[in-house]
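Schema walk-through. Below, the input block comes first and the output block second. Nothing else is stored per chain. Lengths vary across the set, and this one has 389 residues.
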Amino acid sequence: MISIARKLLSLHWLLLVLAVLLGIFGIYAIYSATWMREQTFWNRQLVWLLVGFVLFLGVSLTDYRWIRKGALPLYIAGLAGLLATHFFGQEVYGARSWLDFGFFNFQPSQLALIAAVMVMAIFLADYENMPPILRIALCGVIVAAPWLLVLIQPDLGSAIVWMPVVMAMLYAARVPGRYLITLLLLAVAVVPLMVNFGLKPYQRLRIVTFLDPDLDPRGAGWTINQSLTAIGSGGWDGKGFKAPNTLNELGFLPSTIVHNDFIFSVIGEQHGFVGGSLLLLGYLLLIAVGLYIALKAGDDLGRLLAVGLTTLLFTHVFMNIGMTIGVTPITGLPLPLVSYGGSFLLTVLFSLGVLQSIWIHRGTVSVSQRLEKIKPARGAIFPGATGLR
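--- output ---
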């Protein structure tokens, strides 16, 4: 057993500092995006940030191997939450994705995704010599139910996140590359079917305006065009905090989502290329820390968990910033630690707490696990389990 004091001294301090700085910057960004219209968003975000850091610390100090018992109940709870949204959910921007508890709105898809990552990590860590096709198929079974429930809400953004997370975890689990390439090609082949038959008209319109923002400049293309204009007008160092006559202040950026989905548009307008680049550098460091923790994990379970959670973080950053600059379609994914939203902030800090726990407890693997780490290459023992070949 490791004492609490020793665990605190063993924290990955860069991970902690980056989480704190990004969270504080998020409070500032939300205030700067809403001060002229609404004064309560940043206050509520501050409360959730404080609650989230208590959760982060608690999860960090708890051995991450608790998920062997806790992952399945969380997975079932996630499925139950997704089913509940189908019957009782609150519809927001065309998607029935939220449960309204009066004082708090919760998005079950976030819990379902984290729980699925945990269940996949356990499965892939414990059955590494299973035939690759069977491992892929069973991972598909694990993600199929929650993914389909998310897709029919319909929450396209959350549904898109699953693919890179699953692919990254399969790669980290040493599934041969030819299987992963085949899986990727199959996914690409399914995309046209999803666009034509699996999406609602407004979602297909988002795809079309992503390809050609000028097709409907006063309708579906309005938001992306205004976002590009706002970020471009920021120039090198931006217009400054509370600068007059910004596109955000004048209402050209939609006030209903500027503090969450399009928070980067405000950051780009106010702080320019320099501010946006510094924020990206912070995320780059955070993702690098997550991958480093995966590299140094004490067992396969920790390594796979770290890869899955870090990929989840990366995908949200890429998709959110990408949609504000026209690189990806508008999907409604928030920016981790910066966008407004209590349930998403708690989910991100919970995930970072798990990463911190993997780092703190990396030296507590059992003797059998230590012997496993010094065996010859796995491919010599379990043919076909060595990754790209």
